[in-house]
């Protein structure tokens, strides 16, 4: 398990900035939580989008950040069992945003919003 000591200062600074922004202006339908002892693991509760089979559900996910975030994408997992073509059996979120289309400028907000709208696919 990574701890804050394993993350470079520039990554911690970037995460602190993004997490502050998410706290002050959270995306609708998403609640974010972080372990103060380990910024490399971020949890979010994502409400199922209205008008989809996921409506009225709340889905727990986690993002695992590497030591070179934001230059490499986080790994995303749904901890709540969910059936979706872009979610692997182990809960891994399989979307291009977290793979070949990753761009360091996207940030955590974008990843969370993409995860929210998986249910609308």
From TrEMBL:
Keyword ATP-binding found: yes
Coiled-coil regions listed: none
InterPro entries xref list: Ub_conjugating_enzyme, UBC, UBQ-conjugating_AS, UBQ-conjugating_enzyme/RWD
Active site per UniProt: 94
Keywords: ATP-binding, Nucleotide-binding, Transferase, Ubl conjugation pathway
Pfam families per record: UQ_con
Alphabetical list of PROSITE patterns matching this protein: UBC_1 (PS00183), UBC_2 (PS50127)
SUPFAM superfamilies according to UniProt: UBC-like
The keyword Oxidoreductase belongs to this UniProt entry's keyword annotation: no
Top-rank taxon, per record: Eukaryota
GO molecular function: ATP binding; transferase activity
Residue intervals of the UBC core domain: 10-121
Assigned protein family: Belongs to the ubiquitin-conjugating enzyme family.
Entry protein name: UBC core domain-containing protein
